């Protein structure tokens, strides 16, 4: 992987900017991402599946 390339990680941390990024990407409110994260865990695919 080249230096400076953007990579979307497999998990979503509790940092506000990651929650906001995921919310903007899925066009939902950040609270919905937090709720999905609590019930499914940190895996990005599981969170996206729960929100959709």
From TrEMBL:
- The region called Disordered is annotated at 1-52
Bias (Basic and acidic residues) occurs at 1-38
InterPro entries registered for this protein in UniProt: DUF3606
Question: What is the name attached to this protein's record?
Answer: DUF3606 domain-containing protein
Q: What is the lineage of its organism?
A: Bacteria, Pseudomonadati, Bacteroidota, Sphingobacteriia, Sphingobacteriales
């Amino acid at each position: 992987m080249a230096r400076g390339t953007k990579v979307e990680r497999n998990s979503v941390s509790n940092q506000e900017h990651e929650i906001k990024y995921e919310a903007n990407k899925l066009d939902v409110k950040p609270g919905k991402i937090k709720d999905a994260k609590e019930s499914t865990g940190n895996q990005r695919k599981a969170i996206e599946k729960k929100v959709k």
